[in-house]
Structure formats: C-alpha cells, structure tokens
Amino acid sequence: MGGIRVLSLTGGGVVTHALAEVAALLERPDALVWVDIPECSDEAVALLTDVLGCHPLAVRDCMQRNRVPRVRIYPHQQLVILHGPERGPSGHVHYLELDQIIGEKYVVTVHGPINPNLSLDVALRETDGVRRRLESGRLRPNSPYDLSYAITSALIHRLETFIEEITTDVWHLEQRVTSGHMGNPEEFLEELFQARHGLLAVRTMGALGAEVYGRIAALEARVPADDRPLVNDVVDQLNRIRGLADGEREYLQGVIEFYRARAETKMTIAAERLAVIAVVTLPITALSSIYGMNVIVNTHTHVAQLIAVLVVMAVMSVLLLGWAKRRGWW
C-alpha cells in the first residue's frame, strides 16, 4: 500500500520530497507543492492540522466517507469533494471519493475511505496518471488551481470512459433485444437495470460535481483571475458528462421499452392461443360431461349415437375455430 507522496513543482521540474520537508517547501516563494494522501492516517491528519493549518471540519471530511460532493470555503483554502465510478462484479457502482484541498501554494489530494473489496490502485488511478504526466514534462501547472484542474480533468475523463463502457453494454443488449436472443428473461432484465443504474450513478456524479464547481465559479473574488477560465471549463466538462449520461440513459430506456413491448406481445399471443384452446375444448368438455360416455362404456357400444356425438363435437370445434379466426385470435 502506497504512502504519502510529496512533489514540488518549480521551473526546474518535478522533485519528490520526504513528508517532513513540506513545511520548508511552503516557505519558498516559488513553491507549488502537491501532497497525495492514499488514506487519511494519523500521519496525514498531523500534516493537515499542524503543517497546513486546515480547518477541523476539512480534516474531518477527509477522514470520513462523504456520500455527496461538496465544496467548503475557508479563509486560505478550499475543500472540494468529488466522486469517481468503479464497477463491481455484480454491477454495483462503487463511489471512489477524491478530496482536494486547494491552498495558496499547495494542493492536497486525499483518497477514500476505500471499500475493502477494491484495490488502492483503483483509487490512485487518476492521480498516478497526473503524476506521470508531471514527471515526463507533459504537464507544467503554474498555480494550485492549474494542478487541481489537471487532477479534476483526469477524474472527468474517467467518468467519460465509464459512460463509454456502459454504452458498449447497451449496444450489445439492444442487439440481443432486436434479434430476439435474450436468453433467461430475469437475467436479461437484470443486465438492463444494471446498465441503467451505472448511467444514473455517473450522471449524478457529473451533475453534483458541476454544482460544486459552479459554486466556486460564483465566488470570483476567491479565485485568481487567471484561473477562472479553468474553473468554468471544469463546470462545462461536468455538464457535458451529465448530458452524455442523460442521452445514453434515454437510449437505454428505449431499449427497455422495446424489450417490454416485445415481452408483452409474446404474452398476449400466448394468452390468445390459450383462449383458442379454451374456446375449442371447454364446450366439448361440457357436452361430453352432460351427455356422458355411456355410449362407449356400456354393455355394448351405441355406434350411431357415438358417431352423432363425435360429429357434433367436430362441428362445434370447426365453428368455434372459425369464430376465433374472425376475432383475430390466431
């Protein structure tokens, strides 16, 4: 399990430091420090409280699981809480929490708490990607908001990839519906609703994230003028995620309705066929029960009566089948 990682970003490149050097790094005039905390341990709490002077409520939010994205504005820093998706084996969508504390010279990212069934590498996927871009020189942020923008954009890219994965499943489900090869109806219906659950989850993440960054964008005095376009772009990206998820959810709803219409049509046809069988057999059964079978089971068979009864039954069947045909039952 990875420990706390400290990076300093200056004109000279990216340098990795020990945790004990954070306080000294913040004293440098050109410092831009990124602290990535996989799990909020006692060591991390001491850093947030004693070194960075984070508000107690911010520290509490980093320690506990937050089910709703939010932003908290403090005098010298902001706490932003977002979520990313991860699909479980049963179709359940895990919410991977990513907390960001944005200060005047630093960004702190805190992951978790993480579901025990998930690997820590899954939670660190976006921040590890940003770190590799920094170390390769492909990313050179100029401010804490610039670095936070890169991290949040990586998370948004994960949301978009998640929609792409579910869309692939939706296309396969649609092909099965249109071809009529749906397999077990209960299992197929389960797959449909799992896909809808995934789209609804990612739509919620995008919509609530847009609300959070919309709040930050509204506080123009708290965001440097050069960084306001970055905040507005994040709002636009998250709104786009919401729009994509809504579009795919409507498409999936069409597939579900088509499946329901097809299933209901099959049930209607089956009911009509059963009605034809009932129409044909019930009057005959009634006639035979009233007349009785003494024409056959007796001291001897009454051939004439037996033939007459069979003719009447055949005529009744033909007439009833003709009537069912005119009704359009078969």
Descriptive terms for the model:
330 residues; alpha+beta; seven-stranded mixed beta sheet; rod-shaped
Write a brief structural summary:
This protein has helices at residues 22-27, 42-51, 56-63, 120-123, 125-136, 144-179, 185-218, 228-291, 303-326; strands at residues 5-10, 13-17, 33-37, 70-74, 77-87, 93-103, 106-111.
What about the largest sheet?
7 strands, mixed
The spatial strand order of the largest sheet comes to 2-1-3-7-6-5-4
Cα-to-Cα separation, first versus last residue: 67 Å
Strand content: 5-15%
Rg over alpha carbons:
34 Å
What shape does the CA trace take? Answer: rod-shaped
Instruction: Summarize the amount of helix as a percent range.
Output: 55-70%
Arithmetic mean of pLDDT:
86
| String of helices and strands | EEHEHHEEEEHHHHHH
Topology, number of strands:
7
Explain this structure:
- Helices cover 60% and strands 15% of the residues.
- By secondary structure, it is an alpha+beta fold.
- The model has no long low-confidence stretch (mean pLDDT 86).
Fold blueprint:
Elements: E1 5-10, E2 13-17, H1 22-27, E3 33-37, H2 42-51, H3 56-63, E4 70-74, E5 77-87, E6 93-103, E7 106-111, H4 120-123, H5 125-136, H6 144-179, H7 185-218, H8 228-291, H9 303-326
Parallel strand pairs: 3-7
Antiparallel strand pairs: 1-2, 1-3, 4-5, 5-6, 6-7
